[in-house]
Design goal:
This protein is an alpha+beta fold. The protein is 21% helix and 27% strand. The longest helix has 28 residues, at 86-113. The N and C termini lie far apart (96 Å).
Length: 504
């Protein structure tokens, strides 16, 4: 009895630990550190900007209260080298010539003294470029960007390194001679990457250095205090990557599992489908979600396919300068929850983009460049038109007529209605011969009498012609006698003759 009680207690403990293991939160929280830099609210943050020689990424609060992003790519070219004065070369040449006599002796003496010294690190050569243009793309901030803003509102560092010495700065790659220097059109020179966080009452700027050995975290230095810190990669990578990491990815902005119905509007027609639970699966007993007529509750597979394809209309880039009245409305979807409250809308537009000449190509009035059809969506979250994949949008446009017709896709069955369990495939041969998958007649089953002697009076089985005998080979042997009548001995032939025919 006591042993059973102990086993029961152990079983209960195991069940508790098993439950905690399967129900624990498996979300990996980013480690930004515990060194407090400041404590602000998100409402205090005005903007966050990363400025580098060839790219500027900025997140800022829009007057409407939402966050908006921009990425500016700087186009540069090599900065022209200023011409040297005419007399500079002659002076340098004369100086070099006068020093040539003593250079040999000096080098010989110096080489012996410095032969055991360590080699110096190669000097960094700064590449100087200048701005010739820039391209800016704007985008609404997505979940990753909003999460980053919250982290900067209450910023933390992994380590506080204090004010570094010159040797430490060299190790951290802070304050070194830059490898790239870009002169902007406004005359400013950018040589480093700097993160600037602007608040309502001031700003903080940090110069980015090198990566920590063996990791992706980086050394940074506060421009105002001169103190160095280690920033987590979670604070930096989003800004360094830019738009593709920070932009809005799900244009709807609500949980898809909360959708109760969808109303489709296109070509002056309206159709509503509701989400229901039905039985399906291989055995017809599994609970499945699908779309159906809201009154009859009859599943509508055509509408289900249409709604699912509309979920694939995801933004690839945003066009803040494009106006809705410059495009043609293709369709509009209105999403509601189970209580008939509106969750949001999605509108699909298209427009003809004017053709563009290739670089260096001249315009031919008789053959102007062809335009291209582009598709855009717009929701409450995108706020501006967002470009989507052309093939996905065209499929939605082409399926509109089918959705309103109510025509259902024909079920695909591998079994013929007349009882052929093999469907469209050819039935197997009753003698066991394999089925040719290409439709050609299958070879017949092997003859069970093959290889047996032919009875007297019957036709002789065809024989393979014997290979010609070589010079000096023995005469061919006579054929085997039939069971009822012995075969006449074959007449000997000279070497190289054909094999004899079987006896009659």
């Amino acid at each position: 009895m006591r042993g059973a009680l102990i086993h029961g207690i152990l079983l209960a403990v195991m069940l508790v630990y098993g439950y905690r293991t399967w129900t624990r939160d498996k979300t990996v929280q980013p480690n930004v550190g515990n060194v407090v830099l400041w404590n602000k609210s998100e409402a205090d943050v005005v903007s966050i900007q990363l400025t580098s020689p060839k790219k500027i990424v900025k997140l800022e609060r829009n007057p409407g209260g939402y966050w908006w992003g921009s990425e500016t790519t700087i186009e540069t070219k090599a900065k022209p080298t200023p011409p040297k004065p005419a007399d500079a070369g002659s002076a340098a040449g004369s100086a070099a010539g006068s020093a040539a006599a003593g250079s040999a002796a000096g080098s010989a003496a110096g080489s012996g003294a410095g032969s055991g010294s360590a080699a110096k690190e190669p000097e960094v050569v700064t590449i100087e470029e200048e701005e010739i243009g820039s391209k800016t793309k704007e985008f609404p901030v997505g979940d990753a960007g909003e999460k980053l803003i919250k982290q900067y509102a209450s910023a933390r560092a992994l380590r506080d390194l204090g004010k570094p010495s010159d040797a430490a700065k060299k190790d951290y790659k802070l304050g070194q001679k830059p490898a790239l220097s870009v002169t902007m059109k406004d005359g400013k020179t950018v040589t480093t990457s700097i993160i600037t966080v602007t608040f309502k009452d001031g700003s903080k700027s940090f110069v980015l250095g090198g990566s920590v050995y063996g990791g992706s975290d980086k050394y940074v230095m506060d421009e105002a205090s001169g103190k160095a810190y280690v920033f987590s990669k979670d604070l930096l990578s989003g800004l360094e990557i830019g738009q593709s990491s920070l932009q809005l990815l799900d244009p709807r902005g609500f949980d898809a599992s909360t959708i109760g119905s969808v109303t489709i509007e296109a070509n002056g027609k309206t159709k509503t489908v509701a989400r229901i639970t039905t039985k399906g699966g291989p055995d017809g007993s599994q609970q499945m979600k699908t779309w159906a007529d809201p009154v009859t509750k009859k599943p509508d597979q055509t509408a289900a396919n249409f709604v699912d394809n509309a979920n694939n209309l995801r933004p690839t880039e945003y066009a803040s300068s494009l106006k809705v009245d410059q495009m043609t409305l293709v369709m509009k979807l209105t999403y509601k929850d189970e209580r008939d409250a509106v969750l949001g809308t999605l509108s699909l537009y298209k427009r003809e983009k004017p053709g563009q000449l290739a670089e260096g190509q001249e315009l031919d009035p008789a053959n102007p460049p062809k335009g291209e059809t582009e598709y855009y969506i717009m929701t409450e979250k995108t706020r501006v038109p967002a470009l989507v994949r052309k093939d996905t949008a065209q499929r939605s446009e082409q399926d509109i007529e089918t959705v309103f017709s109510g025509k259902q896709p024909e079920p695909k069955s591998a079994v013929e209605p007349h009882g052929n369990p093999f469907g469209g495939a050819p039935a197997p041969d009753p003698h066991g011969a394999p089925v040719n998958p290409h439709g050609a007649p299958a070879p017949g089953a092997p003859d069970p009498h093959a290889g047996m002697p032919t009875p007297a009076g019957s036709a002789a089985a065809p024989m393979k012609p014997a290979a010609p005998a070589g010079a000096g080979s023995a005469a061919a042997k006579p054929a085997a006698p039939a069971p009822t009548k012995p075969a006449a001995p074959a007449e000997k032939k000279p070497a190289g003759s054909a094999a004899p025919s079987p006896a009659p």
